[in-house]
Amino acid sequence: MAMNNALRRAASRVVPLVIRASAGCQRYLHHGRRSALLAAVNQPSRNLLPRTFPPLLYRYSTKPKSDESLLRVLESEVQCAVESQDGEEDEEVPQGFPFEIEDHPGQQTITLKREYQGETINVEVHMPDLVTGEENENDNDDEEEGEGSGNQSSIPLIVRVSKDKGPSLEFGCTAYPDEIAIDSLSIKDPEDAEDQIAYEGPDFADLDENLQKAFHKYLEIRGIKPSTTNFLHGYMVNKDTREYITWLKNLQRFVEA
Length: 257
Prior knowledge:
This protein is an alpha+beta fold. About 45% of the residues lie in helices and about 15% in strands. The longest helix is centred in the last third of the chain and has 31 residues, at about 225-255. It starts with a helix and ends with a helix.
């Protein structure tokens, strides 16, 4: 009896919705349909609720309007990014490029590798720090000189030179157009405990000028030179565009799911 009363109350709430949806106004409802519906109220069956409630519940299972708006924006952004990439050709590796390139999709960096006279040289290349014309104008408003490497696009590099055994040299570099700056130099010993802080020497800029020049030459003969980094600049700009499009599409698939 309690179940029948509950079903009657549920069906009585649905009756006005069904009447409004099917005829627009109660007075135009056919007498036979009304009789059948009222009979269902008086004699509820187990099939009434499955036929009645799913359309009402469906209203609450659809995506929020904010998600639909986000998907439209994402779709537009993907289209713009793809269109901006159209016509751009991948950077061709120049003849005589001394490194093997390891580029894994989805990664923030690429790795360059080569062997040189018993040494293993690894270069970790990061995404470029691009400087646009607008940023240059803003910098010129604040700085009187308006020149120097700080106003140019650059690529961060970590260069590691190692031998079969023992420690390795690690250079932190910034590659600008036609120029490579060494920011730091340290010796990495694989036998050092992780909880020990090794002495890493003075700031590279505080070294004797002749010593600085000698280390620049040391890297140059191992392939870290402007002709290499200028190619890497274009390569990493293209990679940044590809990764951005993939990232947008992954976001789009997540929101759609």
